[in-house]
Amino acid sequence: MKISTNKIALTAVLLALAIASQFLKNMSVYVTGSIINLILVMAVLFVGVGCASIIAIVTPITSFIITGSPIMAAMPLVIPAVMIGNEVLVLVVGLLKKMPLPVKVVAAAVVKAAVMGLLISLIIIPVFGPASGLPEKALTAAKVTFSLTQLITALIGGALACIIFPLVKKGVNTL
Average pLDDT of 159-172? Predict the structure, then answer.
């Protein structure tokens, strides 16, 4: 698979935007998460699944480095689970090529939230949470964050992509 210089450059720009957005984490997970999901969808649409996958895998690592999440620190398996959730979003958007964008993003959001809810909320936290030393209240909040909140932020990011993608694509086509 040959990747053009333009795709590499655009992937780098999208990754830089994703990393920059992670500095807003203290504002709200709904802001940061929605931006990350927006960028993942836009990456699939502009540079393809392969390049979008790089962003999907790198952003949970940079998120942990930037925000120092106590959940991720106490249960490091959460990091690859988030990578898998991001990758699921990328793959679903990429696989549903002929479907309208709103259908792609809703399907991707639902599948991502289901996968992350299963992996993190129903497996990782129940198995490793009690030994993590984190208070029960934090573990309960994490279960919501890695399931329902993921659904909401993926839907918001997808909705933003439905609005922004046609505008950016039109602008790119006029260059």
Answer: 90
User: To the nearest whole number, what is the mean pLDDT of the chain?
Assistant: 90
Q: Kindly state the tokens that stand for 161.
A: 């992509």
Collect all residues with Cβ–Cβ distance below 8 Å to 74 and sequence separation of at least 6: 128, 132, 133, 134
The Cα–Cα gap between 138 and 98 comes to 41
What pLDDT score does 32 carry? 92
Q: Is residue 146 within 8 Å of 86, Cβ to Cβ?
A: no
**Residues in the chain, total:** 175
Give the fold, CATH level 3, of 5-168. Arp2/3 complex 21 kDa subunit ARPC3 (1.10.1760)
Amino acid identity, residue 150?
A: Q
CA separation for the pair 41, 96 (Å, rounded): 12
Question: Are 6 and 126 in contact, with CB atoms under 8 Å apart?
Answer: no
pTM of the predicted model as reported, rounded to 2 decimal places = 0.91
User: What are the residue boundaries of the structural domains of the chain, listed by start?
Assistant: 5-168
Burial 107-141 (b: 16+ CB within 10 A, else e): bbbebbbebbbebbbeebbeebbeebebeeebbee
